[in-house]
Amino acid sequence: MTGRRLLTTAAVVAGGATVAVVASAWTLRLQAGVARRAIGKPLGEEALLADRTYKRKYGDPIDLLLLGDSIAAGLGADDPKHTLGGELARRLTRQTRRAVRLHTAAVVGAESSALADQLASLAPGYRADVAVIVVGGNDITHRVRTSESRRHLGDAIGVLRGAGVEVVVGTCPDFGALRPLPQPLRSLGARASRQLAAAQRDVTTELGGRAVSLADVVGPFFITQPDEMFALDRFHPSGAGYRRTAKAMLPSVLAALGYLDAVPFGHHPPVLAPVT
């Protein structure tokens, strides 16, 4: 084959590949639009307010802070006590016999980049004993680079750890469980969510926090019991889904507060710095 023919063939192949990539991206955008219309917003855009002091009579309160997106805020729960924060607070009171003051700074629709604003919104002098962060789903749907998501999460963890706050991160849920997403969008979302979850786990543990792999500890329940675990939009957890998620995250929260030594599968303690 002559050099000219080789160049011509290469140009055709490259052009075909470019067309395929553009067509693929166009198809994914169309599917994303279809998925958004199918999901809709039957839950609205405001989560139920669960902030209060739980079991005040126990005294010696634990200050629990929730940061992140709609899952951290509890969108989809049918009662404030069934939000993620409410479920965690109630379980903490039972395990520690201490009161729990819940403060939710999480915002529906937030990306990882919003964590800085959520921290800035806290009252001067406020200091939580433990902060629980769940974020990342909106980073996936808005195609934020994993490196950017990791950086924003790391910055927030750094601020919290610098203030002496214990941190527990629930890593990005598995998008493979979201049936309203058509293929291949669901498969691509599943892969992207797993990549982000791994990055979140690594940066959290490297900075002295604890990570809980939600895809491992609760993902199977959402896949096998979707009618029970998902709310009306089939995208956010229901009250039962938050109950299961809070139960799964509780060991790391207890460990962060010094009430538990060993944690189960899917829970990742801080990485110990090497001895020099």
For the CA atoms, what is the radius of gyration? 21 Å
Rough outline: globular
Strand order of the largest sheet: 1-3-2-4-5-6-7
Order of helices and strands: HEEHHEHEHHEHEHHHHE
Backbone structural class: alpha/beta
Mean pLDDT: 86
Ends apart, CA distance between termini:
61 Å
Count of DSSP-assigned helices: 11
Characteristics:
276 residues, alpha/beta, Rossmann fold, 2 domains, 7-stranded mixed beta sheet, 11 helices, 49% helix, 11% strand, disordered N terminus
Could you provide a short overview of the structure?
The protein has 276 residues and is of the alpha/beta class.
Task: Please provide a written account of the structure.
With 276 residues, the chain is of the alpha/beta class. The chain folds into 2 domains: 1-38; 53-268, 3-Layer(aba) Sandwich (Rossmann fold). The protein is built from 11 helices and 7 strands. A 7-stranded mixed beta sheet has the order 1-3-2-4-5-6-7, sandwiched between helices. Helix 7 (185-206) links the parallel strand 5 (166-170) and strand 6. Helix 3 packs across helix 11 (239-256).
